[in-house]
Amino acid sequence: MPREYQFGFELRHLVYFREVARLLHFRRAAEALAVAQPALSRQIAQLEAALGAPLFVRSRRKVELTEAGRMLAERVEPLLRALAGVPAELSALAQGRVGRVRVAFTGLAMATVLPGIVREFHRRFPGIRVELNESPTSAQAAALLSGDLDCGFFHPDAPTPGIRTRILLREKNGVLLPAGHPLAARPSLRLRDLAATPFVLFPRTHNPGFYDRMLAAFARAGIAPHIAEEVWPRANGTGLVRSGLGATFMCPSEAQSLPPEVVFRPLAGPAPESRLVVGWKQTPAVPPVLAAFLSVAAPRG
């Protein structure tokens, strides 16, 4: 045991001291502790010897705390109270009622399912803190495997060894256009209608699967994409579309609330598909706090 944790007294000495300090009466303290009075006196004497200071002034008529005794009483009370609460706190942690869960998300998750999940989770598990961090799919997979992340909302290319996933959303993308775009008045479009329109995308390294599905959709439509800008987070693309820089892809679920400077139009024919999953590291046993979060984010049907 490290030297700084080696004491000449035990926890019971502090418990006995607190009771005598509270009642200032050895007989009544002994009765409250269910010990013999001589045994209690010996415990207090041992504590005084270990601390090198008298804790009580005893007389026939009364018992008083010394200056050292008053100081110890002030220190001992919060210490014992904290120790008394440890079993309940550990039990709550083991049951997944307190703690923290580290969650990463993409823009699609925040624009669709995540706010409702977090709201319901806080309602059901108010003692668990959710730490949220926006992160691309490529970074989330690495963070899950390294243990730096508990749960992620991302867009998979293929199954990743060591990571379990559950599908949350699967949608064909439409297109987001500036409100003043010549094609904005049409109720729906085909990708080939946008052959002359520049696109705002995101770097392929952040989500290679979806990026390649975008390029494949352009190829099936028989056009080559004109990429005006690549930005991250993907939600920043909306701002560039608002500025009139070009168009970008968007899921119908993302397009529920848009600024007036842009319009969403569904795409007929070739269009990339977005797939959103919730994922976590595969382990023999899911930690209780993570299990609590998954019970809301990915309940079993």
Cα(first) to Cα(last) distance is: 50 Å
User: What Rg is obtained from the alpha carbons, in whole angstroms?
Assistant: 32 Å
Count of helix runs = 10
CATH architecture grouping of the largest domain = 3-Layer(aba) Sandwich
Q: Tell me the overall shape.
A: rod-shaped
* Biggest sheet descriptor: 5 strands, mixed
Number of domains: 3
Mean pLDDT: 91
The CATH H-level superfamily of the largest domain is Periplasmic binding protein-like II
Parts with pLDDT < 50 across at least 5 consecutive residues: none
Number of strands: 14
CATH topology of the largest domain: D-Maltodextrin-Binding Protein, domain 2
Strand order of the largest sheet: 4-3-5-14-6
Secondary structure class reads alpha/beta
Regarding CATH, which class of the largest domain? Alpha Beta
Beta fraction of the residues? 15-25%
The H-and-E topology, N to C, reads as HHHEEHEHHEHEEEEEHEHEEEEH
- Indicate the percent of residues in helices: 40-55%
